[in-house]
Amino acid sequence: MQIIKAEVTPIELNLQKPVQMASSPAIESITAVFIRFDTLQGQSAWGCSVAHPYLTGEKPENLIRVSQDCAEKVPDLHPMNIEYSLSELVGLVQEAPSALCAFDLAFHDLLALAAGLPLYRLLGGYRSRVQTSATIPISSIKEGVNRAQALAQQGFRILKVKGGINAEEDVRRVRAIRQVLPNFILRLDPDGGYSVQEALEVSRALEEEIEMLEQPTNPEQINLMGEVTKLSPVPILADQCVKQPDSALELAAHHSVDGLSVKPAVCGGIRGAQQIINIARVAKLSTMVSCVIEPALLIAAGLGLALSSPNVQYADLDGHLDLVNDPSMPGFQLQEGWLIASETPGIGCGVELG
Q1: pLDDT > 90? residue 53
Q2: Tell me: the pLDDT tens digits for 163-175?
Q3: Among residues of the chain, what percentage have pLDDT more than 90?
Q4: Which of 47, 103, 113, 351 has its CB 3.0 to 4.6 Å from that of 346, i.e. a possible disulfide?
Q5: Are 315 and 306 in contact (CB under 8 A)?
Q6: Are 204 and 339 found together in one domain?
Q7: What is the pLDDT of residue 21?
Q8: 3-state SS, residue 326
Q9: Measured distance CA(303)–CA(270) in Å, rounded
């Protein structure tokens, strides 16, 4: 098999309505870059990445330019030698590390196509479905309850409540949602917005209400996570401070958290995410495969990863639901809050770029 062309297509994707997070201004749109490999044998494979300036610090124009530089090199690389091929691209992505994710996905899509296997089976095939959470953005208590009820009507039974701007308001919002949906699993994600004291007060106040507290403190200060984890009555998961395998190893080595949230879009794709999952597995930490606001193609890749390992206990793969012009055509199914893998070879997601 030989790649004869790698094509880069950037696209601005709009959200149904702005999403507020503690760590950034309201997000109205994202820039996604789609990669297509064409082979001499007539096959096409797809990859994707996104620029999130407030999450990764990357500018969209840098992601596009770096992706174009990588695309020029791809025809010289062997599509079946993924480790070597991706290592050849690492030196080109310093200004936009998330570009590596797009090419990682395209190489894995092509490998799975060649093997005639869906991605989740190629990666390990531990299960074929997983229950995902759905996200409630920062909002008023009334808006949060209304969003929770709407998601419940769609079949979701696990809800992740965003917070981090006002800890006391977050507690009230979670309790209000719990009152109307008493049997649901609730998670709270302050996106690094709490002090240690606030995180401990919230975890104690919501000990009987939430399953986990995700990234409560500043991701640049890992020691703060350790202080919270030591005294919190609910599990603490690291998110924004898990950017690469080396940061995951540091968290595991210092027993700073109870679990790791893995985002393929942030850690360089499937290869980097697998390394983080393996670190968590050896360290006996729980793992959640998660997402940013991203196209369904990236969600499909995250799903394949989540289904591949017994060490993935949680999934948070809803980042595509609020995009209005996503060109991805997912093969996976979403039924009553469960994501069910496609049995189509490859990542299992087509792309239609107008």
Answers
A1: no
A2: 999 999 999 999 9
A3: 89
A4: 113
A5: yes
A6: yes
A7: 78
A8: coil
A9: 11
Identify whether residues 233 and 147 lie together within a single domain. yes
192, 240 Cβ separation under 8 angstroms: yes
Strand 259-262 and strand 44-51: the pairing is unpaired
Mean pLDDT score, 177-190: 97
Considering the domain architecture, whether residues 239 and 105 belong to the same structural domain is answered as no
* The amino acid at 257: V
CB 242 within 8 A of CB 251: yes
pLDDT band at residue 315 under the 50/70/90 scheme: very high
Supply the range of the domain harboring residue 37. Answer: 3-117
Domains of the chain: total: 2
The DSSP code sequence of 121-189 is: HHHT-S-SEEEB-EEE-S--HHHHHHHHHHHHHTT--EEEEE--S-HHHHHHHHHHHHHH-TTSEEEEE
Question: Is residue 100 located within the same domain as residue 150?
Answer: no
Q: Are residues 146 and 289 in the same domain?
A: yes
Strands 24-39 and 44-51: antiparallel
Of the residues 117, 144, 168, which one is the last residue of a structural domain? Answer: 117
> What is the value of pTM for the model shown?
0.95
| Contact predicate 291/258, CB 8 Å | no
Do the beta carbons of residue 307 and residue 130 sit within 8 Å? yes
Choosing from 58, 83, 117, the residue where a domain stops is: 117
Is the backbone of residue 164 left (phi > 0), alpha (psi -120 to 50) or beta?
Answer: left
Distances (CA, A) of 249 to 188, 211, 252, 255, 258: 24, 24, 5, 10, 13
What are the phi and psi torsion angles at 41 (to 5°)?
A: -85, 0
